[in-house]
Task: structure prediction
Amino acid sequence: MSTLRGRVAGLPDWDRCAVMGVVNVTPDSFSDGGEWFDTELAVKHGLDLVAQGADMVDVGGESTRPGAPRVDEAEELRRVVPVVRELASAGVVVSVDTMRAAVAARAVEAGARLVNDVSGGLADPAMVPTVAAHHVPFVVMHWRGQSIDMNNRAVYADVVGEVVDELTVSLERAVAGGVDPERIIVDPGLGFAKEAPHDLALIAQLNRLRALGRPLLVAASRKRFLGRVLAGGEGAAPPPARERDAATAAVSAIVAREGAWAVRVHEVRASADAVRVARAVEDAAGAAGDAGTFGVDRVGGTATTTGTK
Result:
């Protein structure tokens, strides 16, 4: 239900977990190897994602895979702005994935309706005032440093508690900088300065993240922790990124049921189906609450009904 997920001012209310499709306009993405680096191909891919069920499309021009070097601002602008402009002009709800305020501003001027900053405003001190001035929704992700060395920062005593505490600081910083709290979305930053057990713990305890009081974006798609799970044993080789889409859809179903506002995915169709099934289960649970439930007596093993018919 939208009351569980929360609403974001300035964006549609999809009344279920939304699906954000990914368009990487980069030559070195971990997930697609630069397949959409060409502007025309990137635009076509974004439109295809919408046709497959994406509610919005996230366009990024800088890889944030572990160990990735940064690109310069001019190159990021060259990659991102034309794709954002074309998709927005086609009526797509576009998000721009950037850590640079200048890129965010140009993308919003080209039609982007959401700024998705994996650093949560920490990488560029101009980001928060830029987002505030443009009155657009803002994704604040948990982040501990640039991709080049973030794996060294994956040290936690209580990963969920520490992520909540650090996100709280980022949220307060954004609001103090003028960003409307009703336009803020929170992302736990799966895979960013986190090992597989950390990512799994965050998914398992999503309710603690919901206590932050803002809608949650969960970006598990094709990430390393899924590869570790699917490898099935210590030392076993994980499947390549493109073979993790079914596992991604499983996470989409889980977090949708737990109240995530949106999932960010590379392969859209399976996750679009997953979130719709999760919503149907919510509706069935609500109907059961109204009309009575059918269950099993755990002691005697007999089927029982409760409530009224």
Q: What stands out?
A: Strands lie at 18-24, 56-60, 94-97, 114-117, 138-141, 184-187, 217-218, 262-265, 293-296, 303-306. The longest strand covers residues 18-24. The mean pLDDT is 88.
